Amino acid sequence: MKPDITTVEGLGDYDITWPWRRAPLTAGLTAVFRVRNEARNLPWVLPPMFAAVDHIVLVDNQSDDGTPEVATQVAEKVGAADRFTLASYPFDVSRCGPEHLGTPAASVHSLTHFYNWSFSHVKTSYSMKWDGDMVLTKEGVATIADLGWQLEGSGAIVLIPRHPLNVESERVAYLDLGMRGREPWIYPMGPDYTFLKAFEWELRDFPEDTTERLHLPEGMCIEIKWLDSDEFAHWTNVDAFDTARTPRKKREYEVFTACREGRWDSVDGVVRIEAPEGIHVVDYVTDTWLPEAPRPLQA
Predict the structure, then answer these.
(1) Mean pLDDT of 74-92
(2) Over 70: is that where the pLDDT of 240 sits?
(3) Right CATH number for 12-292 from 3.40.50, 1.20.1070, 2.40.30, 3.90.550?
(4) 8 Å CB contact between 13 and 90
(5) Which residues fall within 8 angstroms of residue 14, CB to CB, at 6 or more apart?
(6) In angstroms, rounded to a whole number, what is the distance separating the alpha carbons of residues 12 and 211?
(7) What are the backbone angles phi and psi of residue 108, rounded to the nearest 5°?
């Protein structure tokens, strides 16, 4: 079968043939992770996702912290090894921003090709882009698990709000409730829903005029950001963040920097959360604080 996308480098193993051309897609939802050095986060990220979706595809991009091994262990621990696909993408991928813009879309070094190759492993009718630092709350798990029968055949996409959680220590973190952007995460699989090259990053295409959008409620997902790590290494240059083109990343960087410097209370919408003794703050926020917080969420 002739590939749909061939790499500019001529690497046939990383050409792309869309899965709906290889075999009929089965009903269901697959979460696709593209990860690099997420071993620290996966014990929080994967168990709720396995409870929410039918299958997980995790594509590792040159991790050196044991990410593939941790992912496999978690899948086995929760009894989901038969619903888990692990793949490897052994190329340096251009960082978001100018590096991405200067890389051909069909290069193995392009974010666009990396995403399309990763999603070519999906065998279900719906797929869900997810990041290796994003944790579903109990409400998030229940809501996404119930979506399956509602989405099938609808052609709808699903937008899910997430809130960055800037973690200072095992008991203290800063939750950004001032960023309320909703991003599409769940899409049908098909030729109208592939990834295209945009200016700063990849962008998933969809028929804008005819596609229904489902907006899920707030408080369903947090994005872990460790204050002792470089959370923006996947960007060419953080100085390029601006309110016109990348307002979400600009906000994330400003909040992260303020929290790291002890100025969290200088930013509107940021809440300091301290977990009880013996409970990790990530568990406390996802299992207790967010589920019990009044709606709408307010700082």
Answers:
(1) 98
(2) no
(3) 3.90.550
(4) no
(5) 7, 89, 91, 108, 113, 117
(6) 34
(7) -65, -10
